[in-house]
Amino acid sequence: MSPDVSNLRRSKKVRLIIMGVLLFIALMLALFVEKIRLAMIAVIILLLVALGLESKNTDYDLGKMLKTGSLKESRIERDQNGNLIMEGICQKDGYNCDDFKTQSEAQSVYDTCEFNKNNDPHRLDGDSDGLACEDLPRGTL
Question: DSSP state, 59?
């Protein structure tokens, strides 16, 4: 994934716009398509919850919540720009390309952690060209 697309994915403004557009589409479908009205109302409620969480810079790891049963322990921290703090991923010791199934997965970690040719502690980009684990199958996220 190119760094520009990765930056867009991490942008709070872009996430809010996408949720707003999805909310508008769901609302229009709920108003004009009677057969799916109930499903669209459920989608609208979920989108409103997601929009509220995003606007308040709050997020939760659902897997951790199910495992621990604790809302407090499953809360994910965000920085002042509303971006997720990826400490667990970026500070993990001993990453190597064998930890990933596809190049896209490795590239996502490389981009998320803002690694570069001067900062690649796991040496995911051996030739310093900005592409992590190039020998892995391409794949998609």
Answer: E
Residue finishing a domain among 77, 108, 126: 77
User: Domain residues for 49?
Assistant: 3-77
pTM: 0.55
Rounded Cα gap, residues 1 and 139, in angstroms: 11
Q: Residue 125 to residues 66, 95, 108: CA-CA distances in angstroms?
A: 35, 12, 12
Give the end-to-end CA distance of the chain in Å, rounded to a whole number. Answer: 9
Residues 7 and 73 in one domain: yes
pLDDT in tens, 90-109: 665 666 788 778 888 888 77
Which pLDDT value is given to residue 122? 72
> How far apart, in whole angstroms, are the C-alpha atoms of residue 121 and residue 86?
15
